[in-house]
Write a structure and sequence with these properties.
- This protein is an alpha+beta fold.
- The chain has a domain of about 250 residues: Phosphatase 2c, domain 1 (4-Layer Sandwich), CATH 3.60.40.
- It is built from 8 helices and 14 strands.
- The strands form 4 sheets. It has a 5-stranded antiparallel sheet. Strands 2-3-4-5-9 form a 5-stranded antiparallel sheet, covered by helices on one side.
- A hairpin with a 2-residue loop joins strand 4 and strand 5.
- It is globular and about 80 Å long.
Amino acid sequence: MAGNPILVNVSLIGNKHINRGTPCEDSSCTLSRNGVSVVCVSDGAGGSKYTHARYGSQCAVDCIANLLCDHFDAFYFENRESLSRSLLVTAVHSSMADLLVEHQLDGLERLSCTLLFVAVKGDLVLAGHIGDGLICRVSSHGVSPLTLPSNGENASSTYFITFPNAQEYLRFIRTTTDETHAFVLMTDGVEEMVYDSSSQLVRPVVARLAELASKGKEQAEEELAATIKEFVIGAGQNTDDASVGILYLPDTDVPDFSSMKDAKAKFTRNHEDTIRSVQMEWVPKVKHAQEILSGLGGGKAVQTTGAAPSEDEPEVKKEDNAPKEATKSIDKKEETKDIPAPKEESAGSADTEPAVSGDNPKMVPLWAFLIACGAFILTAIALIVKLI
């Protein structure tokens, strides 16, 4: 990759908040340090329930930007993705704990927000996304989504980094800058204007916004803010806050704007093909496999977490967009006042290399282990009674 990335970010208050005299709840930031360049955007949850969401969104982007600038390699080269996702979430929750004390809040829910980020070091890229909003990749071929909005049954439901189990919803991507011209991140206030979810089409205007960064950070942010104010915030009286972040790679191929499509065929989704239907399909097969392995008297049990049927995960709901205030709410099951701690490794230390041999000894099932322990205890008691 030739030249250092140019980083651009703007966060603007929407007309909805201006008319009601409430502050902007979006946040964004850029940071370059240790050869790492990071862009983050976050959308604070709206509504009276989330009294300090604007502080949560600012805390989230600042925490992730600093964490990735200081520890990019640790996250990029860690093969245990679940560990990386858990650590990212724990870092944000831990940073937010100070806000709970400072503002005398009763839980992380008050700080609820989404989070999107892209970090680049040389040719390596780390990206993450929880909630709605959009991350796009601009290349010489055009513009395409890198991550999609995460919504529930409708566009007014999403997920937050403040969830106790946020790591389950955090999309985490490790890739490279190959054929990339720029990355563009946006909260849903902008996403809804430039992304067609029925065809997964990102409109060419996103690539044109990215090209503003070629003018340098200061001028680009000025022109970007003017464009967002006119065409996004100015589109109505109830428009949401809007944030855009751009990570621009100079000396890379600019897309041919004349060849970019502004329309795309809609796709047809089979709504009966769901993860729950897959779970139900595999339940009898998993039970059958368990019976076989149990009959062997040893051997590793079949992992059933993903196969057994379970209740649907609670979703975050927003209130109707108008005339009520658009809000993002969290089910009571998700509410927490505790900061989750990093999970301890079940075996070995973090530096332990994963086993790769095909001759590993078989794992003893828990029930067999308990039976053996019980038999040992009974035998020991019998021996002691006999000696007495």
